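Worked example 2:
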Amino acid sequence: MVAGSQDWNSLDAAFEEMVKGATNALRNVLSLKEGEDMLIVLDDSKMEIGMAFDKGGKALGAKTKTYSLSKHRRPITEIPEDLRELFKGYKVIINTFETDPQETPFRVKLLYEEILYKARVGHAPGITKGMMKNGPMKVDYTKIVKDAEHLMALFKDVKEVRITAPGGTDIVLNIEDRGFLTDVYINEGEFGNLPAGEIWCSPVEDGANGVLVIDGSIGDLGNVSKPLTLKVKDGYLESIESEDEELVKKVEELCSVDKLAKVIGELGIGLNPGARLVGNMLEDEKAGGTCHIAFGNNMDMHGGQNNSITHRDFLFYKPTFKATYKDGSKRELLQDGKVIY
């Protein structure tokens, strides 16, 4: 367990700004209540951030406990037994630790274990002090909730959606009966990312066809220096092309860890006006005016059938969504990344 000699109650103004961001998310996204038990899973690299959540939780009347992954050899591949034993007793769990592409399978396992006992989980691997102090963690969630609920209502009964973007993306996804989720409020037995601010669904695994041109960022790899072109047929990632040959090599390697790593897993829409593209997907995918499509695991999503051990997000700018409903009617839902009312 983590204790340490630092007096986290007497730190400077920068730390207090992080506490404000943590408290905002705990109150509005995770609905932390007085008297609830909250567990914070952190490591040495995110100690100060973890303790900001700790102080924010206590300010809301919660009972808090911290667990450090730093006592284990990294990269971690399996959930430590002494950590697993804690999950039964906590209503809210916060994950904040350094990211490592090799630990993606561990993070997937961790999330599924944490929600087994109906915890509300705020997943924030790779969260930075900048995110805590500025922008995405301190926004007024009222507007984000309005956009999220508006879009989720419009997506009901959509059969397929065509997504285009100025960078060259042109892809059609079958999303029939694949309900959308959001992280702007995290319910019992669910997890969502912090910072929050997106909606997402699991497209039908063999129902995606077209081209994605990634001009934003890629999960665990950061911002792209040259656009990456992904050709998708029947939901499968058939080819990866870019002038950046090293990037192609890395993406190919990360998307080849098992048979389903190249099968489509997610469609996500960013709605947080305070989120910026910083090369960290945790914040990038929440940025308003962006869209991301992932390949790999989607078992936590409505109808998801992809049980890959990995999940890789690919983000692009200014998507336009044209939906076709089950009754044959059509409607434009977003134009150049802006929600249409």
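Residues 178 and 303 are 6 Å apart (CA to CA). Residues 139-339 form one domain.
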